[in-house]
Write a structure and sequence with these properties.
Elements (H helix, E strand, L loop, with lengths): L4 E7 L8 E4 L5 E5 L7 E9 L4 E10 L9 E11 L3 E9 L2 E5 L4 E5 L4 E6 L2 E8 L4 E9 H8 L1 H10 L7 E5 L3 H8 L8 H47 L7 H8 L3 H12 L3 H19 L4 H8 L4 H12 L9
Antiparallel strand pairs: 1-2, 1-6, 3-4, 4-5, 5-12, 6-11, 7-10, 7-12, 8-9, 8-11, 10-13
Helix pairs in contact: 1-2, 2-4, 3-4, 4-6, 8-9
Length: about 325
Amino acid sequence: MKSAIETSTIIWTCRPDKLESVIDHPIGELKFDMPCPEEIGSGTVEVLGLNLGMDIAHTVLTPNPKYETEETEIPLTKATGVLLEPMIYIVSVKTGHAILHDHRTDKKYDFDQTKTLCMNMDRMDDSFFIKKGQQHDLIHLKMGESILNQFLGEEVAQSLRHNLNIATVPSSDIHAIPLEISRLLHAAFNSHLTGDIRKIHAQSAVLNYLGQLSHYLDCNKERAQIVKQLKIEEIKNELLTHQGKLPSLDELTVQYGMSATTLSNEFKKLTGKPIHTFIIEHRLDNSYHQLEHTDIAMKILAERIGYSHVNHFISAFKKKFNRTPGSLRY
């Protein structure tokens, strides 16, 4: 299987001369020292081109504790490249704090070991920055969409991209992934192994990571959906007991911390009707019962339902029941 990368270039933006490193593909196995200025620090880059068409890299940077600068974010590299197909790119932090500027989407991501960066790219065009004074140890995983489909099957691969919010090209996002899952990817690089055994070990670790990541995100999505459904049920019950004018959709989104689209769509899934339609119809049904069995004044009943004028209540009642409220009392 071929790598998704046709050509790639690293520009070392940490250097005054902006040194360029052209990376040949397929990679095979590659290790070199980072050409960083001594005042910034020293580091290594190690890349394994796996037989399954994936590239996995391990980058380590040790900062120079004597380096003095007012900048808290130090530019490190700018990567550009031509791809043979859309490529999934995952960056997991073992230690340190990294910043990536995705020039395709013009978004900047700040992430550490509690967050994983995920991207779906049609070309390589991004810049890496590091936090001043921190040891950095990162794992980078790259594979074409077709490779991911072959590994996991198209349905599971599509679900994984969707759950990572990178279903479209180009797209990028960061996610809070449990450390025990991230460590599966970190384990891909084993310094005690060599040759083909080392690559087989790395491939096994990557497959294990992707499988566990996919399972975790699916379970997390199911849990989130259950929580969302319970929240909508709670909102429905509170609105049913609310008297007077109904809150607006904007007021509900602020009160319950949900977007207007999510609140509207999920409420309609649960009840089959838009929020205000459902509540008003329920109130009109209740008013029918009260008109039949109590002597409550029409004006008070209209106010409880949320109508500021009795005539508006009468019109809505007649539209629903094809008779006036007063006809129930005579």
